[in-house]
Design a protein that fits this description.
This protein has 311 residues and is mainly alpha-helical. The chain has 2 domains: 152 residues, no CATH class; 150 residues, no CATH class.
């Protein structure tokens, strides 16, 4: 038996739960999501990290493929339990152990992220997945077995919807909805926020003017919440600003803030005069987005100044 035949058979016999005669769709949807990540170039090595893109794809595929089901779309379940099928393995972070519930399931999505570094396939399976033809054969094996007669389209709905909300939704509306977001939803939205804020600011630190663009996914400019999400539940554009890492930390810790004219405020502190001095930016007008509706909210800036006692 060759490797492709072996894995086609394995994919057709995944160890999945049954509920009222229906097969749990979690594992095949996770595998399809990983295949999509390979197709798009988001997954480039045999290390499957828990990323906002992967979780969003999982949720998009779930909505396409699962109709009138009693199952719920918990990403953490298949990411952990797929290891029981023998070709999927988990690499935990150093010194971490996976804690399970009384039913031998993963405790939560947050716990999964805290203890698991990445998952990886058997090497011969990953070699098959790198080939577009054999990847398509394996994809079709999953669709034929678990989702017959259902067309699967490339996912983009969830990410596009979140981008639209971040850029255009009133913060009060967003905050109200965010109160009901689960950990997976918060994780995906945080990932979109981290990409959209630098993009709106042309990948430039709004204070220092530093701009670095690479061919990889590495970003040197951070998306900074003006009022932390844990306090505001607000990922909208007017609660964000782009900063380089050292100024991001200074902003979060209250060493710097912005006045109502978007000029830099700096608290008195001892600092050696050099090229990297923070005090050189005192009174500087920050760089702002091209559209005024994307400017940092005066309400959020005021809250930041009050919290850190600039007023």
């Amino acid at each position: 038996m060759n490797a492709l035949t072996k894995y086609v058979q394995k994919f057709s016999r995944l160890r999945v739960a049954r509920l009222k005669g229906a097969l749990a769709p979690h594992k095949p949807i996770l595998l399809l999501s990983v295949f999509e990540g390979i197709d798009k170039g988001n997954i480039r090595e045999n290390k499957i990290y828990i990323t906002p893109e992967l979780v969003a794809t999982f949720k998009d595929f779930w909505h396409q493929l699962v109709v009138n089901s009693n199952f719920t779309s918990h990403f953490s379940l298949p990411f952990y339990h797929l290891k029981s099928d023998g070709f999927w393995h988990l690499q935990t972070l150093a010194g971490r152990e996976i804690a399970l519930t009384s039913s031998n399931s993963i405790k939560s999505f947050s716990h999964l992220k805290q203890v698991v570094d990445f998952a990886f396939f058997d090497e011969d399976l990953y070699a098959l997945l790198l080939n577009q033809h054999t990847r398509q054969v394996l994809k079709q094996a999953l669709l034929s077995k678990y989702f017959p007669n259902i067309d699967l389209n490339s996912p983009n709905h969830l990410i596009g919807e979140i981008i639209n909300q971040i850029l255009h939704e009133p913060s009060a509306v967003y905050r109200t909805k965010a109160m009901n977001f689960d950990d997976e939803e918060v994780f995906v939205r945080s990932g979109v926020f981290k990409k959209e804020i630098p993009r709106i600011y042309n990948y430039t630190c709004s204070i220092s003017g530093m701009r670095i663009i690479t061919d990889s996914e590495i970003q040197m400019i951070d998306a900074c919440h003006i009022v932390p999400f844990s306090e505001s539940h607000d990922d909208t554009i007017t609660n964000g600003i782009s900063l380089c890492p050292n100024l991001h930390r200074a902003f979060d810790r209250g060493l710097i803030s912005l006045d109502s004219d978007y000029k830099v405020l700096i608290k008195p502190f001892s600092e050696q005069e050099n090229f990297y001095s923070i005090k050189q930016f005192e009174g500087k007008q920050i760089l702002l987005p091209n559209r005024k509706v994307y400017y940092p909210s005066q309400e959020n800036l005021d809250a930041h100044r009050i919290k850190h006692r600039f007023n």
